[in-house]
Design brief:
Blueprint lengths: L1 H22 L3 E9 L5 H13 L9 E6 L12 E7 L2 H9 L1 H10 L3 E10 L4
Antiparallel strand pairs: 1-3, 1-4, 2-3
Helix pairs in contact: 2-4
Length: 126
């Protein structure tokens, strides 16, 4: 009987943990930039490198991707660079935003940024 109770408790624990993990959503932080016409290609490249350096430097960033806009729809309103960062929680995003490395990146970015557009969302949220 004790063995059966143990197996039941263990099964219940595993199911509860599995359910909790399946409901945890990734938080995406999407950032799009337009750069000043006075910024050189080399300056923009240094901004991109500095932003990419945050991955691996700021522990809250779980994944980072970026790319240049190439949409044939021409609805980009001048935004050329898109970055997608993944976080585990809103707290991780808030900690990232206050991280000294992120603050240092903003200093590098500021002289070159014309406009920024940011969207945060949980993957699969309804």
């Amino acid at each position: 009987m004790k063995k059966l109770a143990f197996i039941f408790a263990l099964t219940l624990f595993v199911l509860t943990q599995s359910q909790a993990q399946s409901t945890q959503k990734e938080l995406k932080h999407i950032v799009l930039f337009t750069f000043k016409s006075s910024s050189s290609a080399a300056s923009i490249d240094s901004v991109v490198k500095a932003f990419n350096h945050l991955y691996g430097t700021v522990p809250q960033v779980k994944k980072m991707e970026w790319g240049l806009n190439m949409s044939p729809e021409h609805l980009d309103q001048g935004f050329t660079h898109c970055f997608a960062l993944t976080f585990n929680s809103e707290k991780d995003l808030a900690d990232y935003q206050q991280n000294p490395a992120h603050k240092a990146f903003q200093t590098i970015l500021k002289p070159h940024m014309d406009k920024v557009f940011v969207v945060d969302y949980f993957v699969g949220a309804r």
